[in-house]
Design a protein that fits this description.
35% of the residues lie in helices and 28% in strands. The protein has five helices and six strands.
Length: 130
């Protein structure tokens, strides 16, 4: 299963009770999710360092593979990622259908700089890596 397919299944499952999703447009490295009351963008990049994120008003979801390289990229660029108030990142192992999620802006408020790297690596290692 590729990342786009996994993401669509995940989003539909997450919406299974509310039934707010009207449509999901599947593009190469992103999904556009049209809800009854809003539109969201889901960016899909197996390698997080290939992503160029910009400041956006709408919530953004990034889906990437649970690789140590991607966790290290998040740590290295923490200040950039944590500036996005509504950003969530899902690190997945699609072969095992396991994942972990982080909201850098929220996480930045509750952790201190000295434990940041250890915390992210611990979350990364809690899910089987690719």
């Amino acid at each position: 299963m590729n990342l786009n397919e996994w993401a669509i299944l995940y989003l539909r499952h997450r919406d299974s009770f509310k039934k707010n999703i009207i449509e999901i447009l599947d593009e190469k490295n992103r999904l556009i999710i049209k809800y009854k009351d809003r539109t969201e963008e889901c960016m899909i990049y197996p390698e997080l360092d290939q992503l160029n994120i910009e400041k956006k008003d709408s919530p953004v979801l990034i889906i990437t593979l649970n690789k140590r390289k991607n966790a290290d990229h998040l740590i290295k660029n923490w200040k950039l990622f944590s500036n996005f108030e509504k950003l969530k990142i899902i690190f997945i192992n699609p072969d095992k259908n396991v994942f972990w999620i982080i909201s850098p802006h929220i996480h930045n408020k509750i952790c201190d700089d000295s434990s940041l790297s250890l915390g992210i690596i611990s979350m990364h290692e809690s899910v089987e890596t690719i």
